[in-house]
């Protein structure tokens, strides 16, 4: 059974690395679809008759507009049409004709500037980099450098796969999606810390036992807690997804994917990478005082 779990962890690790490469390839080829918060653009809000569906409006706009656009639904048959700065204009001629032909009610047409400029994006990326380095330093001091590296790799894996899903389904990267990404980072680190703490506890308590068996024991001991946390979190996210409406769908989808891949990586990356890097009981016992060793040796 122990050998089976070890092989399963190694297979999961290989799959994770393959998915990470594929995610990086998708992001590099297609690019992250930045939303209105980062690009600014032209926004047209209108109300449509009940007989017109969003699919019909989308089809009509595809025939009228040659550039990029996003049509999103709001309550009471109200819709919002967004065009990037390079594609749209305020009160274009085609809009008046289209509104008149379809008996639409134009509520607003305006240009909105980007809420997050280039300088703010650069500052945010620098803050994210320093925060990641600070977390790695904490994990090195708290656990061991192999576990710190595994937690960082799991974090990169979770964020990259989540961004790849956004790219594949053309979900705009807005400020709410950015907030979800930051939440995923915290969630991923929390899962990695739980697994790392349990691995350290088992390895220190049973130094004569093989590291592979100790890691399997740690995973089995923390699995119920990990699954219960993930299930309750996903239930809340699904509620937001289905009940909060279109404005929060990107936020909910991002969190949903992030929690799923975070649970996966906590088992197959956070617990497996230290094993691959040669984690052993000596890495901990050499740091323990004689009093700690005596306490760990007690049944």
UniProtKB/TrEMBL annotation:
<keyword id="KW-0812">Transmembrane</keyword>
<feature type="domain" description="Protein export membrane protein SecD/SecF C-terminal">
    <location>
        <begin position="107"/>
        <end position="277"/>
    </location>
</feature>
<dbReference type="InterPro" id="IPR022813">
    <property type="entry name" value="SecD/SecF_arch_bac"/>
</dbReference>
<dbReference type="InterPro" id="IPR048634">
    <property type="entry name" value="SecD_SecF_C"/>
</dbReference>
<dbReference type="InterPro" id="IPR005665">
    <property type="entry name" value="SecF_bac"/>
</dbReference>
<dbReference type="GO" id="GO:0005886">
    <property type="term" value="C:plasma membrane"/>
</dbReference>
<keyword id="KW-0653">Protein transport</keyword>
<keyword id="KW-1003">Cell membrane</keyword>
<keyword id="KW-0472">Membrane</keyword>
<keyword id="KW-0811">Translocation</keyword>
<dbReference type="GO" id="GO:0006886">
    <property type="term" value="P:intracellular protein transport"/>
</dbReference>
<feature type="transmembrane region" description="Helical">
    <location>
        <begin position="226"/>
        <end position="244"/>
    </location>
</feature>
<feature type="transmembrane region" description="Helical">
    <location>
        <begin position="250"/>
        <end position="273"/>
    </location>
</feature>
<dbReference type="Pfam" id="PF02355">
    <property type="entry name" value="SecD_SecF_C"/>
</dbReference>
<feature type="transmembrane region" description="Helical">
    <location>
        <begin position="175"/>
        <end position="196"/>
    </location>
</feature>
<keyword id="KW-0813">Transport</keyword>
<feature type="transmembrane region" description="Helical">
    <location>
        <begin position="147"/>
        <end position="169"/>
    </location>
</feature>
<keyword id="KW-1133">Transmembrane helix</keyword>
<protein>
    <recommendedName>
        <fullName>Protein translocase subunit SecF</fullName>
    </recommendedName>
</protein>
<dbReference type="InterPro" id="IPR055344">
    <property type="entry name" value="SecD_SecF_C_bact"/>
</dbReference>
<feature type="transmembrane region" description="Helical">
    <location>
        <begin position="12"/>
        <end position="32"/>
    </location>
</feature>
<dbReference type="InterPro" id="IPR022645">
    <property type="entry name" value="SecD/SecF_bac"/>
</dbReference>
<feature type="transmembrane region" description="Helical">
    <location>
        <begin position="120"/>
        <end position="140"/>
    </location>
</feature>
<dbReference type="GO" id="GO:0015450">
    <property type="term" value="F:protein-transporting ATPase activity"/>
</dbReference>
């Amino acid at each position: 059974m122990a050998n089976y779990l070890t092989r399963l962890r190694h297979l999961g690790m290989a799959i994770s690395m393959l998915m990470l490469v594929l995610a990086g390839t998708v992001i590099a080829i297609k690019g992250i679809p930045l939303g209105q918060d980062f690009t600014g653009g032209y926004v047209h809000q209108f109300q449509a008759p009940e007989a017109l569906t969003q699919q019909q409006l989308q089809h009509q706009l595809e025939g009228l507009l040659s550039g990029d656009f996003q049509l999103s639904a709001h309550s009471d048959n109200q819709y919002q049409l967004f065009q990037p700065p390079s594609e749209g204009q305020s009160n274009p001629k085609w809009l008046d004709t289209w509104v008149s032909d379809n008996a639409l009610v134009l509520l607003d047409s305006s240009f909105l500037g980007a809420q997050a400029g280039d300088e703010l994006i650069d500052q945010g990326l620098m803050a994210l980099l320093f925060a990641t380095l600070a977390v790695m330093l904490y994990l090195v001091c708290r656990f061991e450098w192999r576990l710190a590296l595994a937690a960082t790799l799991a974090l990169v894996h979770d964020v990259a796969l989540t961004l790849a899903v956004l790219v594949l389904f053309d979900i705009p990267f807005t400020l709410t999606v950015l907030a979800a990404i930051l939440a995923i980072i915290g969630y991923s680190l929390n899962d990695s810390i739980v697994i790392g703490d349990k691995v350290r506890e088992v390895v220190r308590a049973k130094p004569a036992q093989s590291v592979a068996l100790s890691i399997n024991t740690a995973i089995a001991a923390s699995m119920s807690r990990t699954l219960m946390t993930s299930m309750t979190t996903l239930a809340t996210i699904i509620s937001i997804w289905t009940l909060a409406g279109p404005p929060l769908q990107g936020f909910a989808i991002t969190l949903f994917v992030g929690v799923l891949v975070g649970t996966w990586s906590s088992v197959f990356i956070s617990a497996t990478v230290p094993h691959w890097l040669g984690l052993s009981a000596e890495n901990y016992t050499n740091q323990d005082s004689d009093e700690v060793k005596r306490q760990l040796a007690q049944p």
